[in-house]
Write the structure tokens for this entry.
Amino acid sequence: MTARSRHFSSLTKEAAKCVICPRMADQDAILSHRNGSITAALIFIAEAPGRFGAAKTGVPFQGDKSSENFEKLLSHIGLTREDIFITNAVLCNPLKDGNNDKPTRKEISNCSYYLRSVLELIKPKVVATLGGTALDALNMIFGKKFKLSETVAKPQLLDSFTLLPLYHPSPRVTNWMRTLSKQKRDYKKILPLL
């Protein structure tokens, strides 16, 4: 086992024990080898595990409609899950009245240690945020003020990687804000950055 693998294993165990956020204390943290390659040049960051997706399967973007859209977008640019790493602004599923809920700023802050640690461990060339919450999580870590509406699909140099803000592939977004065909064009901008 490499030093990087040992460090990642330690981080996943630490995340599994975390109970800082009251409403997510009984949820599983979705951080394991099932998130993807810890040597990936590309990391995707989304909002949070979905109750029908990662919160149920243990794999980010697997098991729900958002994941179906994500797979289509990934396939469109010729990448597979083995080529990437996927994580979230918060590692547990924030529920409200039994439904997915947006994580609070405090919850994102509580989980920022894990996001920063993953970035430092993997050292990606490109980080693609999926949606405003993921972008806000990076803004919080790096002291930036990027807005998704102003920076969508526009590469931003940030520390040791290039940030590419993208919209989330959820049905709500693809139906009302940014269609899947527009998102396919956005995803094409990833490849030249790798």
